[in-house]
Hints:
The chain is mainly alpha-helical. The chain contains four helices and no strands. The chain has helices spanning 2-20, 29-43, 49-63, 69-77. Helix 1 (2-20) runs antiparallel to helix 2 (29-43) and helix 1 (2-20) runs antiparallel to helix 4. The longest helix has 19 residues, at 2-20.
Amino acid sequence: MLSDIAGDVSRCISSRKAFLNGDAKQDYSLFWLQRVIDACNNEIDESELPEFLDEVNEIREYLKGNRDEEYILRYWKQYEQIG
């Protein structure tokens, strides 16, 4: 479900943010990113998959420090309530 993927994206961002802020001792963002990738590959229609994989690459850029969290979350917000 797209809402589950959006939730995992949010957890990915939150995990990285908590680690960088010193609120968490471990960074689980790569775990959440892998869940997003797996869900996209398993649940997204093949014709729509390239768009979602582009967004996965944007998450990778966030994890490298090249995007801000609002940029990432703005895209995924539209899927938060979709079942």
